[in-house]
Amino acid sequence: MPVTVLLVDDEPLVRAGLRAVLEAQPDIEVVGEAADGAAVIPLVRQLRPDVVAMDVRMPLLDGIEATRALLRTVDEPPRILVVTTFENDEYVYEALRAGADGFLLKRARPAEIVHAVRLIAEGESLLFPASVRQLAAEYGDDGGNRAARAVMERAQLTEREAEVLRLMARGLSNAEIAARLVVGTETVKSHVSAVLAKLGARDRTQAVIAAYESGFVAPG
């Protein structure tokens, strides 16, 4: 089955460009478009896309609020890929904090756009981990987030789970973590699932943000 994508951006040319790049791939299908975040929830309920590629800045409802609303109101929400003009942008970090699974620059090359959509859909790797670290270093609380620290303390991760979380924060995939720890991929998947459950994170991006915000992992 192809990865289905909903495009949300107030610039028609951006949507047209993304559609042309994605629909050139046999395993990706663009199922709909919207010009503002306010249209996301009804379209997601109607089309059930795997991934929403969404501009972070839009006139009526921006990508941050649209992400929050989507995750709050839709059962089994899709993966959310924030599309942005500027990489080092506080809006991007706030979108990740709100629950977005990763971000993509509008000037990205076609191969990078396709890779981002596939990676977000799979959910087994962190998209652009170095950029996420940079954002966390600049805009995160750097261990000063009391709520994040409390969540990390309550999680009581085992030594192996903590090691897996640190490797997740470095951007390693499940297969790469398995090779590093000399264990099976299924074992790593079990550890990742345990980490997400204990932290109350919907995916590895949110777990890594929590690790940075709590000071468990240093973003620098």
Automatic annotation (TrEMBL):
GO BP: any one term: phosphorelay signal transduction system
Keywords for this protein: DNA-binding, Phosphoprotein, Transcription, Transcription regulation
Coiled coil: none
UniProt xrefs under Gene3D superfamilies: 3.40.50.2300
InterPro entries: CheY-like_superfamily, NreC/VraR/RcsB-like_REC, Sig_transdc_resp-reg_C-effctor, Sig_transdc_resp-reg_receiver, Tscrpt_reg_LuxR_C, WalR-like
Entry keyword Transcription regulation: yes
SMART domains: HTH_LUXR, REC
PROSITE patterns, per the entry: HTH_LUXR_1 (PS00622), HTH_LUXR_2 (PS50043), RESPONSE_REGULATORY (PS50110)
Pfam families from the UniProt entry: GerE, Response_reg
Gene Ontology MF term list: DNA binding
CDD domains in the record: LuxR_C_like (cd06170), REC_NarL-like (cd17535)
Response regulatory domain span: 4-121
Occurrences of domain HTH luxR-type (ranges): 150-215
Positions bearing 4-aspartylphosphate: D55
Protein's name in the database: DNA-binding NarL/FixJ family response regulator
